[in-house]
Amino acid sequence: MALDTVAIAQRNPDAVQPFAELGLKPDEYARIKEILGRRPTSSELAMYSVMWSEHCSYKSSKVHLKQFGDKAVKTDALLVGIGENAGVVDVGQGYAVTFKIESHNHPSFIEPYQGAATGVGGIVRDILTMGARPIAVMDPLRFGPADAADTRRVLPGIIAGVGGYGNCLGLPNIGGEVVFDETYIGNPLVNALCVGVMKHSDIKLAKAAGAGNLVVLYGAKTGGDGIGGVSVLASETFDSTGPAKRPAVQVGDPFVEKVLIECSLEIFAEDLVVGIQDLGGAGLSCATSELASGGSGGMKVELDRVPLRDATLSPEEILMSESQERMCAIVEPKHIDRFLEICKKWDVTVTVIGEVTDGERLEITWHGDLIVDVPPRTVAHDGPVYNRPLAKPEYVDRVNAEKVIVPRPSTAGEIKSTVLKLAATPNLADKSWVTSQYDRYVQGNTIQSQPDDSGMVRIDEKTHLGVAIATDANANWSYLNPYEGAKLALAEAARNIATAGAIPLAVTNCLNFGSPEDPGVMWQFAESVRGLADGCLEMGLPVTGGNVSFYNQTGAIAILPTPVIGVLGVIDDVRTRTPMSFDRAGLELYLLGETADDIAGSEWAYMHGQRGGCAPVADLQREMRLIELLVAGRTSQIFTAAHDLSQGGLSASLTEMVLRHNVGADITIANIEVALISESPGRVIVAIDPAKLEQLLALAKKQDIDIVKIGTTGGDNLVINGAVIPLNELRTAHTETFPKLFG
Amino acid sequence: MAKIVVDVMLKPEILDPQGVAVSAALPRLGFTFAKSVRQGKRFEIEVDGEPTPAQLAEVAKAAETLLANPVIETFTVRVEK
Question: Where along the sequence do coiled-coil regions lie (chain B) (predicted)?
């Protein structure tokens, strides 16, 4: 094969290059030529193509995501904002917390186990890169129908991959979601969240400042993983005896990552790095160009120094490789010996591959020949920006006008069968089959995990300071009204933090949508971003970062718009949290918030094939008052339990509460045809000792939140308006669904 | 009675953590011959009589479906006397 160098590109400006096969549009290719003043070399073409891809450049979403900055609330809690690997939030007592969600949807469809596993590995390295010790992970997942053949192929592999990687790292998995819907068949969603903790002084950024500083690659060797698209270049440049088409699948090794985490933390503790970046999507192309443009811009890299797992890799492939478990650091020369020593101690492969220069170009050589000579900002940040056409899809008005017709429970028999059906439906059934494959308690700091409303971990063993995280998305509502859907998901995630008594602090997101080239999908996306930005502004919560995943569709069918919203909160003493359920008889149950006939987009409607109607309208002022009530109630220890109402409404929440500690309840509620199945937002069930009633009423009055007594706890049955549901029967219905489906 | 053997290996470009671990352990135990090690798995399937081409094709299909993960692995089917 012939090496394509800058000199050759200058001598031979008209060589035909496979830019279209690499996903670049003709005008994008022309723009590269304009930037460089010549045709790109094949290595430069590979770098631009992957860095200007939708995944890396956010070219379709950028114009909308700007709102998160424009509408940002001023808050001292945000130590590092959008743009870095992950945002960092002050949680008090000198601690800072960083958290982020990313998608790994497409790889997980092709190879479920490895796709999901490397999704976890990637987000953990993002958190590590900020200087934080990763302390927990969470995984919101979406699948096709539970009984579909492909779901049986994909789901067990994905669950095992999430569990396998996280368990090997010794990170507790403290929550997430498992949701089924037809539109995810052929396109499951694997979103991975990681949270890490550090002291304020330990924050690290991705920048390469200081001429003469060394560029150091450490961690696993580079192989031909995940360079699918670039195989076009390989097939162009390799002769027929060269290697076969490279796979787009990456295989991770969690034990290497564990060592990489400990090695990196020791390096951080001795303050040996100026800047650091993990190698994820787009590998070295991304790390070198982002580090260089984060500094003054100049960097020289000798690519032939990169340690290889496969000696046949071409320079283009090395630049693109997405081999897992690698990091790139900028190190001052005076610290390099100590850096190498620590890597040796941990048995981590480490190589100095280049240095920071005082120029403004990123120059990469291959055995002395210059193969890349670019302004790094043009690769990393000045990619194309598209203002893609958007148009409200015709379906919206049509489905909004549909009347939702579902059976309404009124007799005792109907109430009982409704509760049992909702308890057993895959979207609401007990998820122990999934979460028991995850280690939820490793490290000994897990306070809450599934099936609690939020995950909670202790971060200081002396003061018992803790953080809580919840992720939520209601795609059914987003389908009916993406603007309100995003706001409602935000409100729900914040409420899920607050039921335990934690105070919501910051927001991250993972926006999963269909093709941005479809104006209807683009409209859904724009509306969702607008809703989330408006919602965050109104609730005073900063967006710390996020991820956009487009092209989630099978043929012409896009997934439901699925903006997954993660909210992080802080609790000063985890021992004072409000649990999600009651463990004794004689308590009184109150429903906080207003119940309307919100059946559209509900689980009960979905179970009856009804996808129309209008989504509820979020009342964020009321949500904020409810949150204040919940936090105040926790601080003054009024509640014995508090549990959010969401999918499945009152029926599902009561099911979860009575089964948690096997203590029944006797419920009487008006307007049962609506009350049992409605999913009106902004509602919580609380359990109190009757002696605390005055305090509770005072709080509700102060915050102007509707309150109604719905019953008392005790007995072996869940009784609703006289309909008796034995707990054993309810438990069987709730727990047998997953084992029956997935073995 | 004959034995059909299916050998499954990770594709050469795929990371093999077990092989890496073995090749790191060998020199520690004084074995210095290995430049690299890759680890696979072997299935031995007993059948009655001489395997027919149709039978071998069926085994290959089973290998593709169950014994190997064709996304990241390759396999070979052979008859062992």
Answer: none
The CATH number of the domain holding residue A435 is 3.30.1330.10
| A610 occurs within a structural domain | yes
CB atoms B13 and A224 under 8 Å: yes
Residues A248 and A293 in one domain: yes
Tell me, what's the ipTM? 0.72
Q: Residue A257 sits in which domain range?
A: 25-57+207-380
State whether B17 and A246 contact (CB < 8 Å).
no
Position A65 pLDDT exceeds 50: yes
pLDDT at A53: 87
Per-residue pLDDT of A569-592, as tens digits, reads: 999 999 999 999 999 999 999 999
Number of domains in chain B: 1
| DSSP codes, A646-657 | -TTHHHHHHHHH
Q: Are residues A168 and A233 in the same domain?
A: no
3-class secondary-structure state, position A366: strand
Q: What pLDDT digit, counting tens, does each position of A308-360 carry?
A: 988 888 999 899 888 899 999 999 999 999 999 999 999 999 999 999 999 89
What's residue A247's pLDDT? 55
- Give me the CATH number covering residue A243: 3.90.650.10
Decide if A390 is inside a domain: no
Q: Which domain holds residue B16?
A: 2-80
Amino acid at A190: V
Chain mean pLDDT for chain A: 92
Identify the CA nearest to A511 among candidates A542, A496, A533, A538. A533
The rounded distance, in Å, linking the Cα atoms of A385 and A124 is 29
What's the rounded mean pLDDT across residues A427-446? 94
Residue A240 banded pLDDT, cuts 50, 70, 90: very low
Q: Is the pLDDT of residue A524 over 50?
A: yes
Task: Give the minimum alpha-carbon distance from A104 to chain B in angstroms, rounded to a whole number.
Answer: 17
Confidence of residue A470 (pLDDT cuts 50, 70, 90): very high
CA-based nearest residue to A429, from A140, A149, A155, A739: A739
Asked whether residue A19 is domain-assigned, the answer is: no
8 Å CB contact of B15 and A224: no
Residues A95 and A165 in one domain: yes
- Going from the C-alpha of A639 to that of each of A174, A272, A658, B76, the distances in angstroms are 23, 48, 16, 64
Q: What is the CATH number of the domain that holds B28?
A: 3.30.1280.10
Chain B stretch 2-61, residues whose beta carbon is closer than 8 A to a beta carbon of chain A? 10-17, 20
**Sign of the CA dihedral B48, B54, B56, B57?**
negative
Of all residues in chain A, the one with the smallest CA distance to B10 is A251
**Partner residue facing B15 (CB), from A110, A246, A251:** A251
Answer whether B71 sits within 8 Å of A253, measured CB to CB. no
Q: Do residues A557 and A611 both lie within one domain?
A: yes
What is the predicted pLDDT for the residue at A223?
A: 87
The CA distance from B7 to B39, in Å, is 11
Residue among A231, A249, A258, A323 with most chain B CBs within 10 A, to mutate: A249
Smallest CA–CA distance from A111 into chain B, residue: B71
Catalytic (active site) residue A64:
no
| Nearest chain B alpha carbon to A224 | B13
Claim to verify: residue A626 and residue A488 sit in the same structural domain = yes
Please report the DSSP string for A564-609 in residue order: EEEEEEEES-GGGPPPSS--SSS-EEEEES------TT-HHHHHTT
The answer to whether residues A36 and A76 belong to one domain is no
A696-720 pLDDT per residue, tens:
999 999 999 999 999 999 999 999 9
Predicted local distance difference test score (pLDDT) of residue A231:
44
CA-wise closest residue to A563 among A477, A473, A444, A639: A473
Residue A244 scores a pLDDT above 60: no
**pLDDT value at A246 more than 70:** no
Contact across the interface for A247 and B15, Cβ inside 8 Å: no
Domain count within chain A: 2
Residues A547 and A683 in one domain: yes
Per the CB < 8 A criterion, the answer to whether A264 and A128 are in contact is: yes
For residues A314 and A423, membership in a common domain is answered with no
